[in-house]
Amino acid sequence: MAFFGPPVIVGLSLLAANPDWSGLGLALGTFALIATLSLMIIAAPNGWLIVGGVIVGIAALSGPGPVLQAEVMAHQGQRVEVRVTSVKTYQGKHGPEYTCLLGRVDGKPLKHAELGNDSCDGPTEVGQTEDVLVDPHGWTAPELAETDYSGIDIAAWALPVVLVLFELLVWLSRRVGLRRFKGR
Known about the structure:
The protein is α+β, with helices and mostly antiparallel strands. It folds into 2 domains: 5-74 and 150-183; 78-134, no CATH class. The protein has 5 helices and 5 strands; from the N terminus they run H-H-H-H-E-E-E-E-E-H. The protein has helices spanning 5-15, 22-43, 47-62, 64-76, 152-182, and strands at 78-92, 95-104, 114-115, 129-134, 143-144. The protein has a 5-stranded antiparallel sheet with strand order 3-2-1-4-5, with no helix packed on it. A hairpin with a 2-residue loop joins strand 1 (78-92) and strand 2. Helix 1 (5-15) packs parallel to helix 3 (47-62) and helix 1 crosses helix 4 (64-76).
């Protein structure tokens, strides 16, 4: 059963790349990671397998979503001029944080029309125009047009490597567990 864990975790991370589904994808992905690691512990309570599973599992949960977003923007993103219509302010851990709400200058609708704290400097931005990259299919949120996507293809090749490593750790934990029970 644990063999299904790594692909499910990667799939839920990809689902979390969409801002509409990010909460559900991350919550279910975390649950799948905990379930997979629990099955690995039951099969073989071996320290190095568990530590490796935790590290590779976190990479499998946190990596694919942002890589998918960057791939989509790098290959399909369209440059669009937007205007900051308003700014939401909320209290962060180290002071106020901002989210800029956007509207296209040409009046067309904009899905996920927000720029996060890293790209929004606060209430002084209201009325200013920005160039952003927009996914024409609405899967990912807009990002600043100056975002550097060099090297994203290398990161995309790392995803199958993480998946294969995670599956290898699951297989090794099963093998060690079978050997442990066979010796009794």
